[in-house]
Amino acid sequence: MMEIVFATNNEDKMYEIRKILKGLTIGGEEVRIFSMREKGIDADIVEDGETFVENAAIKAKAVAGMLPGTLVIADDSGLEVDFINREPGIYSSRYMGKDTSYREKNRNIIARLRDAEGEKRSARFVCAAVAVLPDGRQLSTQQTLEGRIAHEERGKNGFGFDPIFLIPPYEHTTAELTDEEKNAISHRGKAMRMIRKLIAEAYTS
Fold it and tell me: For 76-99, how does the pLDDT look when each residue is reduced to its tens digit (9 = 90+)?
């Protein structure tokens, strides 16, 4: 059985990743996906890149360096809100401080958009994914999900900014979707399916 390490210790993210990549095989081998913690890695990796792709690459390469010969995937994702100059962007996880709850972050964003209506509330989720193969090759992709900011938190599913991210065709926030509905259209779902495709192609080329 082949192992992939995903460069995170975020349990909510690992839950999504395992759902999205369920059934993945490489070269006919079944794949098992581990978090950093599950492989005994407790590292504070400094994400000082200027883009989502750069930060994902920093994490993937750092963990690959600790686990030679292991396929490592990392992602970096965030929310861009147009009305507030695409904040919080690459600083999404650190927005208002690392220890600030997402409920507080969500309320702050809603308050900052109190004078914005309709299309002025446009926003997007962004996810960059980078894979570092055992031979050192690096694969990357970046995907988005367009939407707008809701006027209040809605829904109990998902995590992070999901309760305030409204998807116009559905008129639901991503926190109101089922796991299957969300993963089918989400930025992370798109990025993981693309990186999965790129990895499969790399192992057959």
Answer: 999 999 999 999 999 999 999 989
Catalytic option among 12, 76, 99, 179: 76
pLDDT category at 156 given cuts 50, 70, 90 is: very high
Question: What does the buried/exposed string (b/e) look like for 97-134 if buried means 16 or more CB atoms within 10 Å of the residue's CB?
Answer: eeeeebeebbeebbeebeebeeeebbbbbbbbbbbbbe
Return the CA Rg of the chain: 17
Contact indicator for 113, 121 with CB cutoff of 8 Å: yes
Number of domain units in the chain: 1
Q: Which residues pair with 167 in a beta bridge?
A: 172
pTM here is: 0.92
The CATH number for 79's domain is 3.90.950.10
Q: Look-up: residue for tokens 């993210």?
A: 13
Tokens of 127: 């996810």
Please compute, for residue 196, the number of CA atoms within 13 A of its CA located in the half-sphere on the CB side. 17
Check residue 44 and give its pLDDT.
86
Q: Which residues pair with 172 in a beta bridge?
A: 167
Active site residue 76: yes
